[in-house]
Amino acid sequence: MDQYEKIEKIGEGTYGTVYKAKHKTSKEIVALKRVRLDDEDEGVPSSALREICLLKELKHRNVVRLYDVLHSEHRLTMVFEYCDQDLKKYFDSCKGNVDAKTVQSFMHQLLLGLDFCHANNVLHRDLKPQNLLINKNGELKLADFGLARAFGLPIHCFSAEVVTLWYRPPDVLMDAKVYDTSIDMWSAGCIFAEMANGGVPLLPGYDVDDELKRIFKLLGTPTLTTWPEMKQLPSYKEFPAYPPVSLVNVCPTLNEQGRKLLQQLLVCNPKYRLRANKALVHAYFVDVQSR
Ligand code: Z3R
Question: Please, which residues have CB within 8 angstroms of residue 280's CB and are 6 or more apart in sequence?
């Protein structure tokens, strides 16, 4: 740890504090994430450590690089590639206006990162604008991939902030015990709509019930015909049969193809939610500029 000089605190994540830091000899700028564990006295579980070390091999332009894992005295520090800002801060700087080309480029890069991680059997499980990082040259990178499996998703952030429900799919909100890549595709849909709307969150529920109600009021309440497995979910409960609303009114700045892509991501039945590899070849991206 004393190889690094802390410059400033850049964030309070789900698992701990993130600092901007400089390597004392190489002068390289990095992001240091100090993970707080529930049971500090017990030390870092060896299963978590193994999981985290595997993430060092996850190398892709749209995934924040994990350079190193420093483990000492019941503490874990992860050394990440540094990026200039997160998507939440980017939204603030845009003051409600993200141009259509930027939305398309960010969404494409988000899907490229997701496709790579999913192809390597790594899920995120907690995608949100705070863990999408943006570089000065317009590159988008996914941060905190694979941490949920290593450490588990807590109810509260270590900073006592409540973990957000806004990007969670209905199956997870109803306590589905098995997850797959579809969980991240739902979050990608919510983030897509949020980008198109200049940073206004699509489904800002204040508890599980309110989150589900907002989802069903937007997409229409699923039925046992459209989603038979729903009834078996641990926290399944009946909701009024809300009719779906048109996404034209919800994301007026998205073009028709963009709306169609969004509609295929925001599908309540996880089985029918679009996968990242399919989303990447969607007609919405015909004219995407990628360097
Ligand atoms: C790795 C993991 C999480 C984060 C990393 C790197 N960088 C982060 S959060 C960050 C956040 C900002 S700048 C860099 S902010 O100033 O926009 N909040």
Answer: 108, 111, 112, 115
